[in-house]
Specification:
Residues 136-148 have a biased composition (Basic and acidic residues). Pfam families: PAS_3. InterPro entries: Bact_Chemotaxis_MeTrfase, PAC, PAS, PAS-assoc_C, PAS-like_dom_sf, PAS_fold_3. Residues 75-127 form the PAC domain. Residues 136-164 are annotated as: Disordered. With 164 residues, the protein is α+β, with helices and mostly antiparallel strands. The protein has a domain at 3-115: Beta-Lactamase, CATH 3.30.450.20. Helices cover 41% and strands 24% of the residues. It has seven helices and five strands; from the N terminus they run H-E-E-H-H-H-H-E-E-E-H-H. It has a five-stranded antiparallel beta sheet, sandwiched between helices. Strand 1 (15-19) and strand 2 (25-28) form a beta hairpin. The longest helix is centred in the C-terminal third of the chain and has 26 residues, at 116-141. The termini are far apart.
Length: 164
């Protein structure tokens, strides 16, 4: 398989975006743009932080993330990102440094799959399980108690007791 065919296959099935080592967007494919709701001219040349919450974009973790990529280490996982108009998106993705002929990283390619709906479904399921657990615990904690007189028989004073 030639490189062009391989890239075409990936481009058809994956959301893909390319960055320089500082995180500036070089290009993005249609799958990625559809996922985030932007056109290429709205993202090209802008920084990756446009897809992050301001808190995350200003964090030490985020700076370390780009530092690591710049040194040639890849990163993978599920990432919370923001689409157009602040819409929350979850991506299962890999950030892959691309190396030149001398072995130096010169850009980063991200391959991603939108897992937003799966996360929502899982959260709904987990919410239902938690509600059942709470209901079960409450049911067994607050059982109606029988009146004390029914639980304990009153014995006449001294009945059944021996002194010797």
């Amino acid at each position: 398989m030639d490189l062009h065919s391989l890239m075409a296959a990936i481009d058809r099935s994956q959301a893909m975006i390319e960055f320089d080592l500082e995180g500036n967007i070089l290009r993005a494919n249609t799958n990625f743009l559809d996922c985030v709701g932007y056109r290429l001219d709205e993202v090209q040349g802008r920084h990756h932080r446009m897809f992050c919450t301001p808190e995350h974009a200003s964090s030490v973790e985020y700076a370390t993330f780009w530092e690591k990529l710049g040194k040639g280490a890849f990163d993978e996982g599920q990432y919370k990102r923001l689409g157009k108009n602040g819409r929350e998106i979850w991506l299962q993705a890999t950030y892959n440094p691309v190396f030149d002929e001398q072995g130096n990283p010169f850009k980063v390619v991200k391959f991603a799959t939108d897992v937003t709906q799966q996360r929502k479904t899982n959260a709904e399921y987990e919410g239902k399980v938690a509600a059942i657990d709470r209901s079960f615990a409450e049911h067994h904690r607050v059982r109606p108690e029988r009146p004390r007189a029914q639980r304990q028989r009153k014995l006449p004073q001294g009945a059944g007791l021996s002194s010797g």
